[in-house]
Amino acid sequence: MSVIVYHLLDYIQQLENNISMLLQLLCRYMPLRQMAYDDSHSPEYQKFKTDKLPVIVKFEKLDFKVLLQEYEQGNGNPLKPVQRRSGRTIPEDIFCPKCGAPHHYIYDNNGGRGEYRCKVCGQCFVSGITAANPLTFACPYCGKLLQPMKERKHFTVHKCVSLSCSFYQTNLKKLPKDLPDEERHKYKLHYIYREFRVNFFSMDMDSLPANASSLKFSKNNAHIMGLCLTYHVNLSLSLRKTAQALKDVHGISVSHTMIANYAHAAAAVVKPFVDHYPYPRSDTYVGDETYIKVKGAKGYVWFIMDALYRSIIGYRVSSDRAVGSCILAMRMAFNNIKRLPEAFKFIADGYSAYPLAAQQFELREVDPLNFKITQVIGLANNDATSTQFRPFKQLVERLNRTFKFSYRPTCGFDNFDGANYSVTLWVAYYNFLRTHMAKGGRVLNSVPELIAADNMPAKWQVLLRLGQEKILQLQAVS
């Protein structure tokens, strides 16, 4: 037996030597150029960096008669119509869409191919297309207009194509000297801006779902529903184990399907109270996203919490990791906030959705919010920012682990409807019913009605009543 072990150890050492020799050959004759494109190793590679906002030029309608009068007063001579030396004529039905100048003041701008330019206001336009865009984007570095390059699901990618742009020239100088031309596309050189076509700030987030169940009980009562929520949400039991616990402990026969219906109805009622509760706010928010399984596929849960008071002030369940879901979670976190503290900080990981979402809050028409995202990169403190703000990031990571502990018994969800009601109930439990060691064994948000309740099923009944009152209040305001 000892002889066999000896030969196996000798064989393992030979394999280790061969692997070591192969690695040396690879490092010497086949350099891993891909490492140069890793954002943590190469400051030149900025694929996931978010550029600053462009210069937004709003489209304003003008009157060509007023412009002609101003020109005559400023120059002493009237502005003459366009002289057609080339013999080309402009159709009489062509006029400037910006100032309304007739065809006498319109240039043929591209040799009869349909593009025109107004001599009065300088507007370029194409025949048959009304130039009435509400916004025009210009590069903040060179002032040239951005060109739409790509269409994505929720946004359009605009790029500054000017080769004389200072942003392009600066990034061009950072390229490695021996970089082949065919690999230049792996580096970000031009200024890029993403224009969102969906208005995430006009979406209704308060209306009840169309399939919301009723709280009328034909067989059981509100106390049994409170027991179901206590076992299912507070104790993180699955639907079937909750039904078994009710049968074994209380002698109550309730099917797991009925428990799911109770939870679904309770989530719809409790959600308005949870979302619109006046949480105490500090000057530091922390955001992160975690993974769930929905029918075997990957889904996402976004959490935004207050770093000081530990309450979950924004959450969202989504099927993708797009920036739209991040905006909706932030919108819930900034509910009814018109001005941020001067020292406000929003801390997140290195995912690019957070800076993009912050840009949209700065661009929104009503109560714009201007704040920057402090990004904690990676798991190690390799920079000063990560060292300073790592404790805040650990708060939301601990929150994710707490959520996963309650989510794990479900083994995933059958649909996103079930995921939504489960997360809503868990957030209600976390913010109002769960005791926390960081608060000395007290709940995060003390509600007098909940304190007066004797036991947990009664607290759930009170929470449902508060949710119903909030729904009636929102309906009266609308």
Any overview of this molecule?
The chain has 478 residues and is α+β, with helices and mostly antiparallel strands. Among the domains are: 62-126, no CATH class; 135-196, no CATH class; 272-477, Nucleotidyltransferase, domain 5 (2-Layer Sandwich). The chain is 39% helix and 15% strand. The chain has 12 helices and 15 strands. It has helices at residues 2-29, 64-75, 166-173, 222-234, 239-250, 256-276, 323-333, 353-363, 384-407, 416-433, 448-452, 456-477, and strands at 55-58, 106-108, 115-118, 124-126, 135-138, 147-151, 155-159, 192-196, 284-294, 297-306, 312-318, 345-348, 373-375, 435-436, 442-443. The strands form 5 sheets. It has a 5-stranded mixed beta sheet with strand order 11-10-9-12-13, with helices on both faces. A 3-stranded antiparallel beta sheet has the order 2-3-4, with no helix packed on it. A 3-stranded antiparallel beta sheet has the order 6-7-8, with no helix packed on it. A hairpin with a 3-residue loop joins strand 6 (147-151) and strand 7. Helix 5 (239-250) crosses helix 6, helix 6 packs across helix 10 (416-433) and helix 7 (323-333) crosses helix 8. The radius of gyration is 31 Å and the shape is extended. Mean pLDDT is 84; it is low at 31-47.
| Amino- and carboxy-terminal Cα gap | 83 Å
Indicate the percent of residues in helices. 25-40%
Query: Spans with pLDDT under 50 lasting ≥5 residues?
Result: 31-47
CATH T-level fold name of the domain at 272-477:
Nucleotidyltransferase, domain 5
Helix tally equals 12
**What kind of sheet is the major sheet?**
5 strands, mixed
* SS strand fraction: 15-25%
Strand arrangement in the largest pleated sheet: 11-10-9-12-13
Mean of residue pLDDT values: 84
By DSSP, the count of extended strands is: 15
CATH class categorisation of the domain at 272-477: Alpha Beta
CATH superfamily assignment of the domain at 272-477? Answer: Ribonuclease H-like superfamily/Ribonuclease H
**Radius of gyration over alpha carbons?**
31 Å
Class computed from helices, strands and strand pairing: alpha+beta
How does the overall form come out from the CA principal axes? extended
The run of helices and strands is HEHEEEEEEHEHHHEEEHEHEHHEEHH
Chain oligomer state = single chain
Question: What's the architecture of the domain at 272-477, going by CATH?
Answer: 2-Layer Sandwich
